[in-house]
């Protein structure tokens, strides 16, 4: 009788490395699925670890282009930042990975789709909602919610007992997730909100006190809300993000330390790094201020919040999210121009902006010569504005 087959979302980290052995002990044939969304060389070494542990095969796909163009840049255009701080890097990657996992599962004729998420996190929702939408009825197993290993320390002991190749140690128990759009760091001593993140939690972003003493300026060009150039030179999406990650990281830009409201109802301390995203979000917002009319901007603020919550809560492949994309795309038609950003000691601030579609009228805004604003109209306007509130 043929063994039942499971397709496991594999990251190369502690949980999913242990999960391979756990499934094997239960008689399953394990097919690992790993996507390259910007973690780079880690994908190569992680694939070797999966095979060494005993996986039948490890499918690796390069999804960087799709991730940036269809997920990260869509989120950027929407202005989606969860709780005003988190750029959703991990949240954006999960529906993409899960969608491709379903395709592999169908090709492999797998019985089960599995992931290494915990029962108290958000990623379990993001994976499983996508599984249910894309492959209704398929069985889903989450080993971390079922096995007897209740702590990361016990997982490390299990791995050592069975000779599994892992990188985590009990001294450094951070859980790190990387992709092109950002990096998340959690667990270990970071679980204490009063504990200041030490040097070893800085992955790609310099500590501000170690950043250059001189500021650096970077100019980002946009077309229809999408970043297309840096300092006047055109770049493909992936290359553009990679370049800005290096520039921003060198100046300590894009570091976030926050207490996050998880979907399951608990608060979690999270540390994120997203240099390129921080630069692009700052620039994109500045360009929208210049180009969009007041009422559209006002309405879009609410859309941005809803969009960020949909992404965070794993509802990427839903009718509402699709409808919001249509609205966002409409608002971005004239979001074209350039924004100059000043990078200095952990900050990315707007220095200048311009657009052929600018709504800024210097003759109306100026207090100097050339002013064409008819100030005599102000009194009647204020009288009408105040009228409903007079007794």
Q: What's the gyration radius in Å? A: 24 Å
Number of domains: 2
| Percent helix range | 40-55%
The CATH architecture designation of the largest domain is: Alpha-Beta Complex
User: Mean of residue pLDDT?
Assistant: 93
Query: What is the string of SSEs from the N terminus onward?
Result: EHEHEHHEHEHHEEEEEHEEHHHEEHH
Beta-strand residue fraction: 15-25%
Class per helix and strand makeup = alpha/beta
The number of distinct β-strands equals 14
The rough form would be described as: elongated
Features:
alpha/beta, Rossmann fold, Argininosuccinate synthetase, chain A, domain 2, five-stranded parallel sheet, five-stranded antiparallel sheet, 13 helices, 14 strands, 20% strand
């Amino acid at each position: 009788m043929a063994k039942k087959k499971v397709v496991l979302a594999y990251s190369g980290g502690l949980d999913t490395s242990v999960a391979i052995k756990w499934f094997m002990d239960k008689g399953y044939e394990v097919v690992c699925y790993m996507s390259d969304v910007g973690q780079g060389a880690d994908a190569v070494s992680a694939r070797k670890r999966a095979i060494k542990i005993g996986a039948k095969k490890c499918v690796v796909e390069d999804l960087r282009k799709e991730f940036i163009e269809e997920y990260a840049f869509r989120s950027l255009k929407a202005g989606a930042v969860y709780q005003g701080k988190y750029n959703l890097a991990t949240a954006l990657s999960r529906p993409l990975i899960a969608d491709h996992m379903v395709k592999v599962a169908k090709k492999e004729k797998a019985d089960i789709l599995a992931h290494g998420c915990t029962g108290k996190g958000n990623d379990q929702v993001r994976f499983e909602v996508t599984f249910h939408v894309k492959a209704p009825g398929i069985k889903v197993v989450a080993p971390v919610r079922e096995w007897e290993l209740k702590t990361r320390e016990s997982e490390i002991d299990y791995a050592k007992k069975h000779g599994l190749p892992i990188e985590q140690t009990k001294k450094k128990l951070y859980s790190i997730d990387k992709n092109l759009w950002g990096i998340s760091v959690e667990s270990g001593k970071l679980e204490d909100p009063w504990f200041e993140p030490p040097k070893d939690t800085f992955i790609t972003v310099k500590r501000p006190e170690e950043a250059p003493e001189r500021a650096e300026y970077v100019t980002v060009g946009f077309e229809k809300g999408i970043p297309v150039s840096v300092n006047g030179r055109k770049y493909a999406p992936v290359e553009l993000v990679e370049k800005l990650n290096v520039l921003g990281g060198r100046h300590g830009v894009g570091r976030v330390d926050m207490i996050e409201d998880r979907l399951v109802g608990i608060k979690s301390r999270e540390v994120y790094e997203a240099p390129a995203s921080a630069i692009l979000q700052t620039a994109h917002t500045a360009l929208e201020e210049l180009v969009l009319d007041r009422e559209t901007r006002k309405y879009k603020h609410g859309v941005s919040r809803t969009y960020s919550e949909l992404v965070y809560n794993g509802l990427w492949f839903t009718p509402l999210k699709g409808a919001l994309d249509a609205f966002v795309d409409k608002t971005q038609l004239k979001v074209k121009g350039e924004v100059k950003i000043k990078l200095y000691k952990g900050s990315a601030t707007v220095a200048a902006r311009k657009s052929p579609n600018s709504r800024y009228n210097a003759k109306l805004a100026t207090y100097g010569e050339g002013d064409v604003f008819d100030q005599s109209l102000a009194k009647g306007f204020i009288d009408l504005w105040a009228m409903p509130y007079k007794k």
